[in-house]
Amino acid sequence: MTLISFVVPAYRVQGYLRECLDSILAQPVTDIEVIGVDDCSPDASGDILDEYAARDDRVRAVRLDRNLGLGPARNAGLDRAVGEYVWFVDGDDWLVPDCLVEVAERLHTTRPDVLLVDHVRAHWDDMVTGSAMAEVFPEPTGPVTFRLRERPETLELLHTAWNRLVRRQFLAEVGLRFAPGWYEDVSFSYPVLLAADRIGVLDTVCVNYRQRRAGAITKTQGERHFEVFEQWHRVFREADRFDAGQLRAALFERMMWHYLTVLGNEDRIPAELRPTFFARVTIDHARFRPPGGHRIPAGVEGLKHRLVAAGQWRTYSALRATSRTGEKARRTAGRVRRRVVPPAKATVRAARDVALYGYHRAELRRPLDENLAVYAAYWYRGYACNPAAIYEAARQSAPEIRGVWIVRRDRVHTLPEGIEYVVAGTPAYHRVLARAKWLINNVNFPDSVRKRPGSVHVQTHHGTPVKVMGLDQQRYPLGAVGMDFAGLLRRVDRWDYSITANSFSTQMWERAYPAAYTTLEVGYPRNDRLVTATTEEVLRLRAALGAGLGEQVVLYAPTHREHLPGYRPPFDPERVLDAIGPSGLLLMRSHYFHDRNRRAWPPAGRDRIIDVSAHPQVEELYLAADVLVTDYSSAMFDYAVLDRPIVIYAPDWDAYRLTRGVYFDLLAEPPGPVARTFPELLDVLRAGLSDSVAADHTRARFRERFCALEDGQAAQRVVRRVFLGDISG
């Protein structure tokens, strides 16, 4: 018999759902099932559930034909569950590794109706805070069970569905289900405890409760927070049904704590609705106050209770304002101390930099130039990537928009003829950054760039991610040395649009860069050229590189290792050329971070080995190459658009995965043959395994997942939406 049925509702959790499902399926307990319920989610959550169900027979995917809300979605999963116990885990949370061993043991030994488990709050800034478990139960309860009236302090634990496992037959016997609406946990979690004869407590952290920076209901203002009242009304109706008796006082105290918590949260109740919310709290205080009285908290919290009982909103509001003013003063004092205490910087800005700063500030006071768009790529390295493709499309479809590129002084010579540009750091640079309405970049602009009202920032990114990025790097500190995550989020908050090439990228960016931008999942503009290139263009590019008809061109393009400066994979170009054969040509391209190296690679001893690191357009190298050899670079996703052979050469996969972090198992889902050692790479190239039926099938699956949107029109889709305001699709 299945021990645990996990019910995982999914609505707008595409960036987190994989981590949730993986954390369940990787547990060393096999008698489980996972019922994923797609609550008619507008993102890719349903597709992710289908994907997992297709490859793991423990997973069942359920698609609802309309959005019902979290409570009814959980009920839909409950109706299909067959496990002895049901665990409702939210799609954006995840389990602690191996926690299920202790959970299963406790279930087997005590057979509770309800088993409460501990959790931590996992904040988006990688901070972790504990729950109230240790405060509620200073001494662990151990493997015993009890009724709520024996341990009424149990009510002080967080009232969620995901921190408790419930015996499925018990739920059916007492007729408990989730109610619709927000705060649905309240009217389920408390009655479950009231009805249970056998409650167990496992003081082992099992759940990582994700505190999302953006997208959480608890951070959504509006009148739907008033639904908390009806959920508590249900609790008291159930209390009557289960003859709660003296527990009503404890329930009342939790109700008041909850109401005042919601009222005090500006992210939930807007200012204009607070008086009305307060009045509803006063009504419920009179309606549910126990005849025998209740415990009033000490200090300010007790004063709040008295003001609620008396209906004194103005006094309550004044008290709250005074408290907030004091807290703000303390934070300000702390910032001042942090600025004053550290020693003054040893260097002073040059007079020229001061003048430029003043000039920039003056330009910010001038109106936006409604027809000026600023483009940049790879930290001002030149004309390249998605911004270049968008620039070309805008010249055709929005010619009234003047496009200006920002470039480093040492890279000016790489710009195509006729491109208008400014040099980074000059007065012209500060002027266009201050005045432009449109700012398009494949990385972030410097911190000094302000997000002006009316300006539009477009983050195009520069690859589908294999390695973890953004906030996710906090879990891999060796690969994130020197990163300022708070500064990163300030830059992300400037984005209006995020361009993605596929659903997978959309999911990962949502988690790595949580903010309020709009995602345009349209394909990568830079790949349009790969789709539209003619045979004549390909032959011309090959000829320019010295490749004739019938010759096999292999492009080797590894990524860099931030955590291993100077690292080079074991790679002998002479032996690779021998493996390719007499008609081979080897192109070697280093990562763009090495662009200031005099030579990206050691001098080659043969003329059929060419260093193409300085070639301005990597897309031209893709078009010229017959085979791509890479490791963890996003080059594989772009090159796959061409449907040509790809070889993954991953000699340090284990170390890279553990140290730098990856978003998916590249060795399990590669675009072609995988070589873990240099001799294996030579064998692949000699045997032609990169161009075989098996490799074709592998590449087809990869292309279906990552390249489905690449039809040659991505740049035009961006221009229509961003510059022309076309939202039709």
Automatic annotation (TrEMBL):
Presence of keyword Membrane: yes
InterPro entries the UniProt entry points to: Glycerophosphate_synth (IPR007554), Glyco_trans_2-like (IPR001173), Nucleotide-diphossugar_trans (IPR029044), TagF_C (IPR043148), TagF_N (IPR043149), Teichoic_Acid_Biosynth (IPR051612)
Topological type in the membrane: Peripheral membrane protein
Record's keyword annotation contains Cell membrane: yes
Family in the record: Belongs to the CDP-glycerol glycerophosphotransferase family.
Keywords: Cell membrane, Membrane, Teichoic acid biosynthesis, Transferase
Protein name per Swiss-Prot or TrEMBL: Bifunctional glycosyltransferase family 2 protein/CDP-glycerol:glycerophosphate glycerophosphotransferase
Organism listed in the record: Micromonospora fiedleri
One Pfam family from the record: Glycos_transf_2
Residue ranges constituting the Glycosyltransferase 2-like domain according to the UniProt record: 5-171
Superkingdom, natural source: Bacteria
CDD domains: Glyco_tranf_GTA_type
Subcellular location: Cell membrane
